[in-house]
Amino acid sequence: MEKRTASCYCGQLSVEVQGEPQGVGVCHCLACQRRTGSVFAALAGFLAPYKVTGIATEFVRTGDQGAKFRFRFCSVCGSTVFHTEEGNESKWVAVAVGAFADPSFPPPQDSVYDCRRHPWVQLPQGVVVYEKDPT
């Protein structure tokens, strides 16, 4: 089974995942825009097990549906690397696509919070678009 490693800019924090992503998506919500400093977040979900190396600083955010998400980022360089949903940490992990530093990484399959997408952002053909979070 293929392994992939995503890491922060300085390399202090990393997460190793196995297999293909269960899904790849982009989120245009204002919380993700502020969290990433970009106009959207690109995330890939992987099933457990996953292995974390290094020390993460954590931030917990409550989503629109009430779920609590624990974001992990590097305390040295500040890069966001991954997050989990409280209560589901042993099931899956969401990894920032950019942390893989792999231009051949699979493209997004869906896009959420399109109502907040900057009008100049063009999505690849075939991406399923949701006005808000479909869950």
TrEMBL record:
The answer to whether the entry has keyword Lyase is yes
Q: Which UniProt keywords apply?
A: Lyase, Metal-binding, Zinc
InterPro entries reported for this sequence? CENP-V/GFA, Mss4-like_sf
Task: Supply the SUPFAM superfamilies for this chain.
Answer: Mss4-like
Question: Do you know which PROSITE patterns this protein is assigned to?
Answer: CENP_V_GFA
Q: Where is the CENP-V/GFA domain?
A: 4-114
Similarity comment: family membership: Belongs to the Gfa family.
Name-wise, this protein is GFA family protein
Q: Which domain of life is it from?
A: Bacteria
Identify the Pfam families for this entry. GFA (PF04828)
